[in-house]
Amino acid sequence: MTDPRRSIPRTDALLAHPRLAEARRRFGHAQVKALIVAAQEHARKGDLPPSDVLAAVLESLPGSAAGLRPVINATGVLLHTNLGRAPLSAAARQAVELAAGVTDVELDLGTGGRGRRGRTALAALAAAVPAAEAAHVVNNNAAALALAATALAAGGEIVISRGELIEIGDGFRLPDLLVSTGARLREVGMTNRTSLADYAGAIGPRTGMVLKVHPSNYRIEGFTADVPVARLAELCRERGVPLVGDAGSGLLTPEPLLPREPDVTTWLNEGADLVTTSGDKLLGGPQCGLLFGRAELVERLRRHPLARALRVDKITLAALEATVAGPPTPTWESLHAGQAALRARAESLAARLRDKGIDAEAVGSQSVVGGGGAPGVVLPSAAVALDGAIAAVLRRAEPPVLARVEGGRCLLDLRAVPAEDDDALLDAVLGVPPEE
Ligand SMILES: *Cc1c(COP(=O)(O)O)cnc(C)c1O
């Protein structure tokens, strides 16, 4: 019989493990090595099975018990809310790292006096949306709407179509948020049809704002009508009330692949006074809410006392700036990945898995945008199909892989997986024990 201690993983092999390599960058080489040596020692004394050494080291890492873990998103859902929506670009990650230290976020180094908070991020937003006179950043799109409703309509009315009273997810209902600001909703039209006359009849002296919401996560088909922003804007201008648009999904300019998704620039050009959107959806940046529009309105919102409670930290500002001014985001890359390239990656991964004796096959697949965006839009994709039973095991792999189970098979959809993560995906599948 061989001595089980001979199967204790070697130090250099453990140090090279992706999660421990990452841990070395975070906590330093010496600390990680000490944890490895301690776990090996336990195994040598017979207190720990050699196969559990890696798990023991991972468990003993500082803060890892409650910490977030990097996950490979093989679901085919580009913006997976439970996986934190948009992953940041390498440029945004670097900016976050830099911003985490002491920075000039609110200091003018030229004069030594106070500077406009986040001015470089605001400049990046201005360059990205020239149609906006001004911009402001808050914690998320819900906060942007709460700020607009509070500053413009508290104690008055928000005119909104019944077809746009939406629930976004996890029980979050937009109307509840709006009413919580002290504004009342003046609902107009019907679920499926709202006309310009409906709005015209409802706007009055109590109207604080008219709100146009993009119903981002569902679509009504059939006998429907709604009022385009351009016509609504004309009416609002005549009546002297601001038109606020919740575009939701984070596009600053039109995206040809998603022709039904509204974008900030188009709505502003059509006459909306203020447009809100999310930072961590199709924009591909950090969680935040963006407000664009007329300088006078943006300033009113910025000066409102509530704005202070909704303001973002320096790390968000840095990530946002790098996202807006930087190279294409991972979200953009995923959206635009060609089906042939995805298919080639799936074929190659499946072949490499078959070489190791794993039953794997490249198949066609269908991805979606997710994050409550682009309902009904299907993005043709490619996946590696494995035995359905493996999906649960993969969630506990290193790194964890979130797959999709379809027709009894486990699909690893590659659209939301950056190509550079293919090797990590392969290792995770290969590391799964053959029979559980
Ligand atoms: C996602 C979404 C919201 C909420 O945005 P958060 O950034 O998650 O607060 C609001 N409105 C619409 C139309 C959305 O799509």
UniProtKB/TrEMBL annotation:
UniProt-recorded name of the protein: L-seryl-tRNA(Sec) selenium transferase
Residue ranges of domain L-seryl-tRNA selenium transferase N-terminal in the record: 5-44
N6-(pyridoxal phosphate)lysine, modified sites: K281
PANTHER family according to UniProt: L-SERYL-TRNA(SEC) SELENIUM TRANSFERASE (PTHR32328)
Gene that this sequence comes from: selA
Catalytic reaction list: L-seryl-tRNA(Sec) + selenophosphate + H(+) = L-selenocysteinyl-tRNA(Sec) + phosphate
EC number(s) recorded for this UniProt protein: 2.9.1.1
Domain of life: Bacteria
Organismal lineage: Bacteria, Bacillati, Actinomycetota, Actinomycetes, Streptosporangiales
Pathway: Aminoacyl-tRNA biosynthesis; selenocysteinyl-tRNA(Sec) biosynthesis; selenocysteinyl-tRNA(Sec) from L-seryl-tRNA(Sec) (bacterial route): step 1/1
Cofactor requirements of the protein: pyridoxal 5'-phosphate
Keyword Protein biosynthesis applies: yes
